[in-house]
Amino acid sequence: MKTLIIDDERLARNELRRLLDNFPKIQVIGEAADANEALPMIEELEPDLLFLDIQMPGKNGFELLQSIEGKTPEVIFTTAYDEYAIKAFEFNALDYLLKPVELARLSDAINRIEEEQHTTDSTGTNPTNGSLSKVLGENDQVFVKDGEKCWFVKLGKVRLFESMGNYVRLYFDDQKPLVLKSLNALEDRLNPSTFFRANRKHIINLQWIEKIEPWFSGGLLVTLRGGDKIEISRRQAIRFKDLLSL
């Protein structure tokens, strides 16, 4: 995978290149210290992947991506600051690595690249292709920030999404953070084979269902592992049965 490292700190570039030596599939084809250096290299070398710093002299990492004409490479952001993480994932980043980059976290990021490539090879299409409408599945890892707390969580661990006005509450482990997003917008991003819209307020992870019971007016009551009880509305119960029936 042809890779460019873009970072204004020479020591950071050197350290990342050293760490990437552990991954034979990653071929570092060049380095750049800022957007002015990087843009012509991206046009000429057509890299598959960018390791991209955010704060740089001149254009920052986000502005660099917006300046790319044609197909945008996959992106893994590298930065010393965590406050940009939500915006990074709005740019469909594969991952967001905090400096100093640790080998274990870098390995997780490379594994995600391989998962994306496997999906591309098996479907014949690239689900990311620079679009903000990428469908997220159980193996996708997302950044969640609520106040001063931050998590990187695999969506497969999220058992329930609950609408709270303009926010959505995520339920995973013993955590219940809020994110600024509507449930409808979130539903458009989630793989419907794993995440099911149970009613106006809830999306459930089908793999977490422990028990299903008949409920009022033709609806269903599902119990998730952990004890959460969610009503599936009558209309959604029809879809639910169709989805899970042989």
UniProtKB/TrEMBL annotation:
The lineage of its organism: Bacteria, Pseudomonadati, Bacteroidota, Cytophagia, Cytophagales. The keyword Phosphoprotein applies. The modification 4-aspartylphosphate is found at residue 53. It comes from Spirosoma sordidisoli. Keywords: Phosphoprotein. SUPFAM superfamilies: CheY-like (SSF52172). InterPro entries: CheY-like_superfamily, LytR-like, LytTR_DNA-bd_dom, Sig_transdc_resp-reg_receiver. Residues 144-246 form the HTH LytTR-type domain. GO terms for molecular function: DNA binding; phosphorelay response regulator activity. This is Response regulator. Residues 2-114 form the Response regulatory domain. It comes from the Bacteria.
